[in-house]
Write a structure and sequence with these properties.
By secondary structure, the protein is an alpha/beta fold. It folds into 2 domains: about 130 residues, HAD superfamily/HAD-like (Rossmann fold); about 70 residues, no CATH class. It contains 11 helices and 5 strands. α10 links the parallel β4 and β5. It is globular.
């Protein structure tokens, strides 16, 4: 297999995961463990989170829908309160790896993100450091196109734009549900748990030294 392109998720891959912030928030407020993640996972294709990432609802509607969905699972959490928890810190080691990959292969980014005007959130375009985003040959943002992972069409759009065969691509994401469609298309997939682990697997897949 000759790799031609490496495609990245953004949050939780090039930045640290928001899950730690979710846990701190729940602990501080005495909420049931994992209530935020369970709310996100329930009916994950059509819930409040999915609709907001596709820019189908505004922030007020998202706030109310998320509150109702979380309450149904045991405790009310306002959607507005979750948004500030999403800001992750850039992982310098992953940015360095991306730079080295960029020198050899085509690069893409597929990100489920929120509308840029999401109040209290840095997950719109302001989060994306310009220097990092410039390293991608193509970026697909869910809130801009009205599709989100794991919809297979979003991966197809990327390979068509990059003009590559899925079998010649590596795809990195921190969520297994988002890796499945890429794997089914023939991509080599890497589930990101940490920067060091992801880089080791990327080195094995690409044959490059990334540190």
């Amino acid at each position: 297999m000759a790799i031609e392109a490496v495609i990245f998720d953004f949050g939780g891959v090039l930045t640290s995961s928001p899950f730690e912030a979710f846990t701190r928030f729940e602990t501080e407020r005495g909420l049931p463990p994992d209530i935020i993640r369970r709310t996100n996972a329930a009916n994950h294709l059509e819930n409040a989170w999915a609709r907001f990432e596709r820019a189908e609802v505004d922030i007020d509607t998202f706030d109310h829908l998320f509150a109702a969905e979380s309450l149904a699972l045991g405790a009310e959490v306002r959607g507005r309160d979750v948004l500030p928890l999403l800001q992750g810190d850039l992982r310098p080691e992953m940015v360095e790896a991306l730079k080295r990959i960029k020198a050899k292969f085509k690069t893409g980014c597929i990100t489920n993100n929120l509308p840029a005007n999401a109040i209290g959130s840095l997950t719109g375009r302001t989060l994306y450091v310009a220097e990092v985003m410039a390293l991608f040959d193509h970026v697909i943002e869910s809130a801009r196109i009205g599709l989100r992972k794991p919809d297979p069409r979003i991966y197809q759009m990327m390979v068509e734009t990059l003009k590559v065969d899925p079998k010649d691509c590596v795809y990195l994401d921190d969520l297994g549900v988002n890796l499945k469609p890429a794997r089914e298309m023939g991509m080599t997939t890497i589930k990101v748990g940490s920067g060091a682990q992801a880089i080791a697997e990327l080195e094995a897949a690409t044959g490059l030294s990334l540190r």
